[in-house]
Write a structure and sequence with these properties.
With 185 residues, the protein is of the alpha+beta class. It is built from 3 helices and 9 strands; from the N terminus they run βαβββββββααβ. Strand 5 and strand 6 form a beta hairpin. Keywords: Hydrolase, Iron, Metal-binding, Protein biosynthesis.
């Protein structure tokens, strides 16, 4: 089932998410719904807060973009243990912030600990585009958005676009859920 993607301005996107247990209700169905939602929206990653749930769950499917191998995984209760390498800029977007793309600096290598969908614990080194997508989605479960990494000036220049998204004045090819109250940012 395709889920509505939460739009910029919804408080759930700014919450630090909580760990979940193996007994989380309907977890496998939630994961399947998140993959369907992400694929329908042509995304490469999706975090639980983006579907309205403040839990430490995100998915990644790079679909062999950027000339790299396919990287498709589920991350539960993830912790980035280390980021390394020279930061590099890449033009990022976000399904919760449609029609906004900005160059964001991130380190190219990470070491991450997480449970997969079968509750097997992993500690893995990831590099390149997949590492970037993981960092972007990890930021979501930490209550951060890619726009938080922008300079104050750049944020000011984007303010009207971001306010329009929060009010539902944006067109997407996928279903979105907009904040009930539009608070000043």
């Amino acid at each position: 089932m395709k889920l509505p993607i939460v739009a910029y301005g919804d408080p759930v996107l700014k919450k630090v998410c909580v760990d979940i247990e193996e007994t989380y209700p309907d977890l496998q169905q939630l994961i399947a719904n998140m993959f369907e939602t992400m694929n329908n929206a042509s995304g490469v990653g999706l975090a639980a807060p983006q579907v309205g749930l403040p839990i430490r769950l995100f998915i990644v499917d790079t679909k062999a973009d950027e000339g790299e191998e396919v990287f498709k995984k589920v991350f539960i209760n993830a912790q980035i243990l280390e980021e390394s390498g020279e930061p590099w800029a890449f033009n990022e977007g976000c399904l919760s912030i449609p029609e906004v793309r900005e160059d964001i600096m991130r380190k190219p290598n990470i070491l991450i600990s997480y449970y997969d969908e079968n509750w097997k614990l992993h500690e893995e080194k990831v590099s390149g585009f997949a590492a970037r997508v993981i960092q972007h989605e990890y930021d979501h479960i930490e209550g951060k958005l890619f726009t938080d990494k922008l300079s104050l000036l750049r944020k000011q220049l984007l303010k009207s676009k971001l306010d329009a998204i929060a009010k539902g004045n944006v067109r997407t090819d996928y279903k979105m859920r907009y904040p009930r109250q539009n608070k000043k940012r």
